[in-house]
Structure formats: structure tokens, C-alpha cells
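INTERNAL AUDIT FORM
Audit reference: QA-55
Scope: verify that the stored structure record matches its stored sequence.
Auditor: D.O.
Record contents follow.
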Amino acid sequence: MTVTREQPWSDESPAHGRILVLTANPISQAVYAIGTAVGRLVVVLADDDGGPGLASLGPKEGDAVVLCDHDAPDAPQFLRDALASPGWLVPVAGGALFTLLVVTVLTSAVWYLGTQGLPPSTGY
């Protein structure tokens, strides 16, 4: 008996978006090194206190929006802009308690988005 098997992979190369990162720190340096090593365009927004913000980069579908400094002054606006964008939000959180806070904020923001539209300041 002959079984026809489907090819489990694709020879098509998927289109990859950019990696957009807030703020310049050791974590964003690592994201930059890894992202560029695999051929991705990585943009780090170093100005995190009244800087140009995420909107200045025009996030598109397929972009990864990485928030790796939740203490940055621009972090709450960056988070709201990321949630409103067609890009994929990648929040980086270290430590169990801080991770719980970030997950709580994101869960609340997603609920708020579903019921009211864009959330007001997250207040963390």
C-alpha cells in the first residue's frame, strides 16, 4: 500500500516584518544582535522620554513591537500604540512579580480594547 504524504514544509520564504524596540538597554542590544543575525531589520527607539514614539515608525502587519523597558517614561504610550497597531506586541518582562503586573495590565488593556476601544493610561 502506498501512502501519499504531504510535504511538511514550504519552500516559500515568508515575508518578515521589522523588529521595533523601545528603549536602548542591554535587552534591546541582545534583541538587535539576534534579530540582525537572522536577517531582520531591527529599529531601536533610544529616546524614551518624550521621544518620537512608536507612531513615528508606522508599525505594519508582520512587525514585532518589543517593549523591553516598562519603566521608561514613554512606555505606557508605547504600549497603547502597540496594542492599537497591526504589529505583534512582544512585552519583555523579567522577574515573577513584575511579569504578573505586566500580564495584568495587558489583560486589562485587551479587555478594555474589546469593550471600549483604546485604553487610557495604564498607570503602572
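Auditor finding: record pair retrieved intact. The chain has one domain: 19-116.
Action required: none
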